[in-house]
Amino acid sequence: MRILLLEDEPEMARALLEALRRRDVLADHVSTISDADALARDGSYDVLVLDRRLPDGEGLNLVASLRRSKHSVPILVLTALGSVDHRVDGLDAGADDYLAKPFAIEELLARLRALHRRGPSLSDKYAHFGNLRIDPRSNEVSVAGAIIELRRREYLVLEALMRRPNRIVTRSNLIEAVYTLDDEIESNALDAHISRIRKKLAQAEATVEIRAVRNIGYLVRLKT
Q1: Which residue has the higher pLDDT, 80 or 136?
Q2: Would you state the pLDDT for residue 122?
Q3: DSSP state letters, 44-110
Q4: What Cα–Cα distance (Å) separates residue 79 from each residue in 49, 50, 206?
Q5: Contact of 190 with 157, CB cutoff 8 Å
Q6: Per-residue pLDDT tens digits for 121-138
Q7: Structure confidence at residue 185 (pLDDT)
Q8: CA–CA–CA angle 46, 148, 119 (5° rounding)
Q9: For residue 2, how far is the Cα from the chain centroid?
Q10: What percentage of the chain exceeds 90 in pLDDT?
Q11: How many helices, marked H, and strands, marked E, lie in the chain?
């Protein structure tokens, strides 16, 4: 899961980002509506989490704007404004869920998982390719029914490729799927992930392979 967090209180943002990181959730953080608007519209996030009272306005205005433009990203409002009227306003503006501060981190995570399940995800068609199966609900990968162990970032690379079988996924799109905006990325990091995935698929006798497309990216395809 990859989320965009719009939160202007530094201490709250740091605590949330650390809690999400410990649970293997990728999160990008911004503190203004304008920055969130620019990032949310590119379609690379599974869930948008936003506060209401922000330096450049009311967070619900962003919710309404995204919905007017037919943007379907699941949205969770996370705010200190927690009265019934506030919650009604948030849901009427187009939010999918509303959680008042203070909150339990486990409840937030459960709500994020629920929103992620409702949003766009791997379809059955893409979850099965050859004898390779990827389960986005459990993050398990198997070949002919046998589980293969992938590191977190290896899984994210493979999931991004499996969303588009037989189609090229650019290097930049793969990097966006694996790293947050704050991560320091070594120049050969993506290629190292791909190399380890290839070895594990080969050892498991997968009927699919990852092919490099020079200077563009990679694609997953059936072996010939």
Answers
A1: 80
A2: 53
A3: --SEEEE-SEETTEEHHHHHHHHHHTT----EEEEES--SHHHHHHHHHHT-SEEEESS--HHHHHH
A4: 10, 8, 47
A5: yes
A6: 555 445 788 999 998 777
A7: 79
A8: 15
A9: 2
A10: 59
A11: 9, 14
